[in-house]
Amino acid sequence: MLSLKKLACFTVLSASVVTSVAYAGSAHAVKMTYSAGAYRNQNVKNEGAFSENVNNKNFVTIDFNGITDNSFKGNDLVQYTFSGGSYSTTPGSTGIFNDQWAPASVKGEVNQSNYLAVFDGNSVSIKAKNGGVFNYFGINAGALSGGNTFELLKGGTVVGSWDYIALNAVAKVVGTNQNGEKNGFYEFLSQGFDDNFDEIRLSQVGGGGFESDNHTFQIGSGAFQSTPEPGVTLGMLAVGSIFLYQRNKKLQNVK
After folding, report:
1. CA distances from 245 to 108, 114, 147, 238 (A)
2. Using one digit for the tens of pLDDT, what is the confidence trace for 63-85?
């Protein structure tokens, strides 16, 4: 059955490895960037691609690993809701499992970890809890095929949407065991308050499946700004303190 999910073929324009696409629906448009992604651990190459922010404590990543039943609903910050009410752990239907269609890793390496698949006519809604909004979302999307649909919403209103053609047009990473289908890591960045979003919706329209892994979030309002890890900030402060100490010492010597 899984082989039937790869039915559609589209002609797309080639694009650079890192590409930005803005949703034209508002003055402050959600910005999409694409890259091959990063490894969470340089010594582990079989868990798919991750956000560059995966090890930053200011971000949260859900990798779907360790899930063995159908009880997954998210975490303290985000809630996952399946349109069918629940999901399967058996390949071939909407669910969480691992097989050859898992989004490939940074250089096309086989992903042997769990991932999320949304199949024909189904969707998965990811919402911020406690009235929160997102200004950043990253997703490892893979084995891209016709019908893959991605939307960002605020209060039920779409603030950004991308289909298979838009996603596939910028993708470059080819999975070694996926019949030439493309993969990569997509990041969606708010440019202002107008395009913050409180819901992420993954859908599959028509035959096939939408495979994704390693969802990364930042809860925040306004324009997204990259935030350094605490250790980096402390290091910068330390360097600044040393500079000020040396400068003051020189001034004292001049006196």
Report:
1. 48, 51, 60, 11
2. 999 998 989 999 999 999 999 99
